[in-house]
Amino acid sequence: MDPENGNAGQVEGTEKAEKPSSPTGDSKPAEAVAVAPQQEGSVPERKVLRTKGNQAGFGRLSRRELLKVAPVVVLGAFAVPSLQESLLKRGLGFSDWASKQLFRRGHLAPTFRDSELTQLERFPVNDYDVDDPGVIFDNWTLTVSGAVQKPGDYRLAQIQGLPRIRHNTRHVCVEGWDVIGRFGGARLADFLAMIGADTSARFIAVGCADDYYESLDMATALHPQTLLCYEMYDQPLTREHGAPLRLNVPTKIGYKQAKYLTDLKVTSVLDKVGYWEDQGYSSFYGL
What we know:
five-stranded mixed beta sheet; 5 helices
């Protein structure tokens, strides 16, 4: 089972360290050693003349050594089974928090010329469960609920009645591949306006015909490139790519771009974050 296409990311340098001019790593000369004149039958007396920089030098050496040891300590902690889950959750939580701080609704994902498109037949098809959950298009509706003024069932024609946006953007898979595709549909922001969604709510949660589920934070849902996608390459979406409706979110990793949409809920509380997120994947995963 592959975590991609919603129902299923880039990927060095060495520096030559300078050889320290003294054991402390300082650029100053090492300790000066004075030897008193030796008298016959006596043991030479050695006097150490210490410079002011030596104490700080040893302090810096200690810090360097601690920095060298720190990764080993962290790796050692991961070797303790009882600490692994907690460390991973904290790491993912920090990563998601940092990504959210960097996300800007006005910052667009790169777009590309038609000549740079990946051919449709070479656009990979990854699924969460099945290639085609057997949606009956004539009966299909998107059921809307939650913090909206106009809940209910919306047909594809109503979504297609909104301004159509087409763009050539990169689709990035967490498995390591990426392709440039052409996607078309209605801005999710326009659909949210049509249904009277409360955009002060925190999330958009979606359910799918193959039982996949996903969520987007509200800022991502309102991003101008986030689409309720019903076209690829200027043609109706095919079944293997998520017909009749899927998410296209160029600012996010592929598994956030759920296919075969059947339900959409505006909410501030998520019972479930997403199929892969609930198994330990990043919940934000911005690109």
